């Protein structure tokens, strides 16, 4: 099997391209457009975004001439324009999912409702789907994966985001034959469960990112979601509800992520967790039962054991995302995807005292944050996955700050695609 760069180069030399359709042109989407257009053997002939001007701007920033950009919300016109060498911009993501020249759809909105809808339409139309939208994946990824398998297409979460980078390290360690003790990521923002878009706005503006996105980083919802995706792919469980999250240097990681009887923090092996102080990297903690392997690890300065850390000090977010699209098309393989029934959930917890009749606002908002727990515990508690919340989710009862939101506490939006898929998923994987 040829390496992916060789395959892409040969494809390019033959005059062929992997055609990528993109849904969502925020900060990550803009990066994807530029990167795809700089790669051999790949093209991005169509983009969907609710604001057409932002999609046009993303293409121009990647070097596309204005005269080569064509705007339409019609599939037939989009196909004709692509065939003539134009770059299509549309407000309708279904045009991306239906257009015949598109081989792979990348979903990059970060919104569970949009992500679920786009993935469903892509799968239905025989397109591989890459989710730079882990928020959707942890909510309905298992059922979308089953649908994609049945349709003969690939469903995958993106390379470059922490879950994909962790899974690549995990796959390496597992293939080599190490025992994998724990997997995780660094968190580079101080933890503040009460963070909201107002308190984060000044910092977000300075960094050029959406205040809700920064809020989800600071209140740790993003970390919980990412490690839920890793849990559902590897079968590893949370170290505890909400995780441990110690402060650490890289040198500390092997000791901290060992069993309590060995002086560490863990009650068991096979867990996901995070650490402050090592961001933006990801890590895998490993050990070996064999003296020869331990001798070699010591010789190559990996430490004296019993645990060792494999560390990748970067993840290139959207810059790597096109590799997942290429891998899906060329090899029919995901970068990271759910292995079956959910192992973990990210459930909603009240950020403040909330009143009956109040609307919830979901990830990165004012009312709730996410906490990881095992899927088994979430089922027993009837806990509500945070990805099911939208602005039509209304409380039926008062909820105290720090209390887990349960299904019977809310009225959900029955018209929501992500909710309908979640109900199918719960029935499909019912024990």
Description:
- GO terms for molecular function: NADP binding; oxidoreductase activity.
- It holds the Pfam family DRL_cat.
- InterPro entries: Asp/hSer_DH_NAD-bd, DRL_cat, NAD(P)-bd_dom_sf.
- Residues 24-136 form the Aspartate/homoserine dehydrogenase NAD-binding domain.
- Residues 160-321 form the Oxidoreductase DRL-like catalytic domain.
- This protein is α/β, with parallel strands linked by helices.
- The chain has three domains: 4-161 and 318-331, Rossmann fold, CATH 3.40.50; 162-314, no CATH class; 344-428, Type Iii Antifreeze Protein Isoform Hplc 12 (Alpha-Beta Complex), CATH 3.90.1210.10.
- It has 16 helices and 16 strands.
- The chain has helices at 4-13, 27-38, 52-61, 75-83, 93-98, 112-124, 134-151, 162-176, 197-207, 211-218, 221-234, 253-256, 291-299, 321-331, 375-381, 417-428, and strands spanning 18-23, 42-48, 69-71, 87-90, 104-107, 128-131, 155-157, 179-187, 237-238, 271-276, 282-287, 308-312, 344-350, 368-374, 394-395, 410-411.
- A seven-stranded parallel sheet has the order 3-4-2-1-5-6-7, with helices on both faces.
- The longest helix is centred in the first third of the chain and has 18 residues, at 134-151.
- The radius of gyration is 22 Å and the shape is globular.
- The model has no long low-confidence stretch (mean pLDDT 97).
């Amino acid at each position: 099997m040829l390496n992916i760069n060789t395959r892409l180069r040969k494809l390019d030399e033959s005059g062929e391209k992997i055609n990528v359709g993109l849904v969502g042109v925020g900060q990550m989407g803009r990066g994807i457009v530029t990167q795809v257009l700089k790669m051999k053997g790949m093209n991005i002939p169509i983009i969907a975004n609710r604001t057409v001007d932002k999609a046009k701007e993303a293409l121009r920033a990647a070097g596309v001439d204005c005269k080569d950009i064509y705007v339409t919300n019609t599939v037939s016109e989009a196909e004709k324009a692509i065939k003539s060498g134009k770059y299509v911009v549309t407000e309708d993501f279904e045009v991306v999912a239906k257009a015949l020249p598109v081989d792979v759809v990348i979903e990059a909105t970060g919104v569970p409702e949009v992500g679920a809808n786009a993935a469903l339409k892509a799968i239905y139309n025989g397109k591989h789907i890459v989710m730079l939208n882990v928020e959707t994946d942890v909510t309905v990824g298992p059922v979308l994966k089953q649908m994609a398998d049945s349709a003969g297409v690939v469903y995958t979460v993106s390379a470059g985001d922490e879950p994909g980078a962790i899974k690549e390290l995990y796959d390496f360690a597992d293939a080599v034959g190490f025992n994998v003790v724990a997997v995780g990521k660094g968190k580079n923002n101080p933890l503040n469960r009460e963070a909201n878009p107002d308190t984060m706005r000044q910092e977000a503006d300075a960094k050029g990112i959406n205040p809700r996105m920064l809020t989800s980083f600071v209140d740790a919802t993003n970390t919980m979601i990412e490690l839920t995706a890793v849990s559902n792919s590897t079968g590893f469980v949370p170290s505890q509800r909400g995780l441990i999250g110690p402060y650490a240097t890289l040198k500390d990681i092997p000791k901290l992520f060992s069993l309590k009887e060995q002086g560490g923090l863990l009650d068991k092996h096979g867990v996901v967790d995070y650490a402050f102080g090592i961001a933006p990297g990801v890590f895998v903690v490993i050990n070996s039962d064999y003296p020869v392997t331990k001798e070699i690890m010591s010789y190559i300065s990996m430490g004296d054991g019993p645990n060792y850390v494999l560390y990748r000090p970067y993840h290139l977010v959207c810059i790597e995302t096109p590799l997942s699209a290429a891998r899906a098309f060329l090899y029919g393989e995901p970068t990271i995807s759910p292995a079956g029934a959910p192992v973990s959930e990210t459930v909603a917890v009240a950020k403040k005292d909330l009143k009956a009749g109040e609307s919830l606002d979901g990830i990165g908002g004012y009312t709730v944050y996410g906490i990881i727990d095992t899927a088994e515990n979430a089922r027993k508690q009837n806990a509500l996955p945070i990805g099911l919340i939208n602005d039509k989710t209304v409380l039926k009862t008062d909820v105290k700050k720090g209390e887990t939101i349960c299904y019977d506490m809310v009225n959900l939006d029955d018209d929501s695609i992500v909710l309908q898929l979640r109900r199918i998923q719960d029935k499909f994987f019912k024990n």
